[in-house]
Amino acid sequence: MPPPSPLNAQRLRTTLKMAISKLKFLQEKKTAITKQQRRQMADLLSAGKETSAKIRVENIIRDDVYIELLEYCELFCELLLARSQIVLDILRSEVDGGIQDAVLLIIYCCNFTEVKEMVTLGEILRLRYGPEYTRKVLENEGGSVVPPKIVSRCDIEPPLESLVNLYLGEIAKTFEVPFSGVIPDDSEPESNDDSDLPDGGVKVSVGEGTEETDPESALVAGKITPKTVAKRLVSKAQAEKSEFDKLQERFAALRK
């Protein structure tokens, strides 16, 4: 078998930089849109149009999930840029453990974003690591190749009704509008698990410390996402958030 053709180092790095820039822009654009959509949902609830709100809030949920996917893409593109020499080393036929998560993510989800540079990166990495590796990633062989946190954010299934109600409930509480699905605060059981929910000024755990969270600013800023709202449904969400925060800290250090 002939050796693989050498990668174009300049093309790889330029594409990564352009992808990072466009991913950041797209996150800002989507976040601004969801801010407006939340206020629109509040208007619908205020007018008593709950059925319409339940249908339209699915767009907000989907956009929030998409924004999280874009965040992962941006972080792992930065990782790949910082460690591009590993990709360019043709003597390494296997995917290095230090870039494995980044390579997996880009190959698997490059077609789920609106960024053409992500598609280009996917093509570069497919050629770099071969068709067999690409097949295992795209098929998620055994359901254990691609991390579930990435697979779930590429899922096209409609959100659960319980998640729809939680979203509308948070919007109703924040904008002080009526919604039949709101759970009264005094009826919620006291639990340490609720200490990190962005409700009513409770404390949100961040790293090793805590900070006070204003509910409206959290909602308008786009922080009420499936990862945060669904903590009442999925107990492992906090562990995943901590993992993501640590990853962000590592990349912040790389930028210095």
UniProtKB/TrEMBL annotation:
GO terms for biological process, alphabetical: endosome to plasma membrane protein transport; late endosome to vacuole transport via multivesicular body sorting pathway
InterPro entries: Ist1, IST1-like
Highest taxon of the lineage: Eukaryota
Pfam family, one: Ist1
GO cellular component, one term: endosome
Region (Disordered): 182-222
Residue ranges, compositional bias (Acidic residues): 185-197
GO molecular function, one term: ATPase inhibitor activity
Protein family according to the UniProt entry: Belongs to the IST1 family.
Name the UniProt record assigns to this protein: DUF292-domain-containing protein
Protein source organism: Metschnikowia bicuspidata var. bicuspidata NRRL YB-4993
